[in-house]
UniProtKB/TrEMBL annotation:
<feature type="active site" description="Proton donor">
    <location>
        <position position="91"/>
    </location>
</feature>
<dbReference type="InterPro" id="IPR015947">
    <property type="entry name" value="PUA-like_sf"/>
</dbReference>
<dbReference type="Pfam" id="PF04266">
    <property type="entry name" value="ASCH"/>
</dbReference>
<dbReference type="GO" id="GO:0016813">
    <property type="term" value="F:hydrolase activity, acting on carbon-nitrogen (but not peptide) bonds, in linear amidines"/>
</dbReference>
<comment type="function">
    <text>Catalyzes the hydrolysis of N(4)-acetylcytidine (ac4C).</text>
</comment>
<dbReference type="GO" id="GO:0005829">
    <property type="term" value="C:cytosol"/>
</dbReference>
<protein>
    <recommendedName>
        <fullName>N(4)-acetylcytidine amidohydrolase</fullName>
        <ecNumber>3.5.1.135</ecNumber>
    </recommendedName>
</protein>
<comment type="similarity">
    <text>Belongs to the N(4)-acetylcytidine amidohydrolase family.</text>
</comment>
<feature type="domain" description="ASCH">
    <location>
        <begin position="23"/>
        <end position="121"/>
    </location>
</feature>
<dbReference type="InterPro" id="IPR008314">
    <property type="entry name" value="AC4CH"/>
</dbReference>
<feature type="active site" description="Proton acceptor">
    <location>
        <position position="38"/>
    </location>
</feature>
<keyword id="KW-0378">Hydrolase</keyword>
<feature type="active site" description="Nucleophile">
    <location>
        <position position="41"/>
    </location>
</feature>
<dbReference type="InterPro" id="IPR007374">
    <property type="entry name" value="ASCH_domain"/>
</dbReference>
């Protein structure tokens, strides 16, 4: 039995549902996303819940500033060791750059997910 009021439970559920539909990016990637040079993101398991076909509101990680909406096209598992030039190209980076960025964000994590998206106007 939950001791919170029904209003409180609904409020918490709304926050959770909104959080699951949001995505954040580091500010330095905003320009590449907006001009279509960066068409994937690579995330760990905690961010692998995005539903294919859903539309997510995107904001900056640093300040929470909204900057676009993306439609999720696919969510596929990928091992860190299997990342290749094709992934790097879709990130608008070289492969060593991409691996270094990911190692900084997700140190020691092998099990990752490639999320492909399209920007909505
Ligand atoms: C802010 C936040 O919550 N998390 C992340 C996680 C990842 N990324 C970018 O996705 C690609 C592969 O990981 C690279 O381009 C990353 O820098 C990001 O911008 N923000």
């Amino acid at each position: 039995m939950c001791c919170l009021s029904i209003e409180c439970q609904i409020f918490i559920k709304k926050i959770i549902m909104k959080t699951l539909k949001d995505m954040t990016f580091f500010e330095r990637f905003e320009a590449d996303i907006l001009c279509g040079k960066k068409v994937i993101t690579i995330r760990d398991e905690s961010e692998s819940h995005y539903q294919v076909g859903s539309v997510v509101d995107v904001s900056t990680f640093e300040t929470g500033r909204y900057f676009c909406q993306l439609r999720i096209l696919s969510v596929e598992p990928i091992a860190f060791s299997s990342l290749d030039e094709d992934h790097a190209k879709q990130e608008n980076m070289t492969l060593p750059e991409l691996k270094s960025v990911i190692q900084n964000i997700y140190p020691g994590i092998e099990r990752l997910f490639v999320i492909t998206y399209e920007r909505l106007a």
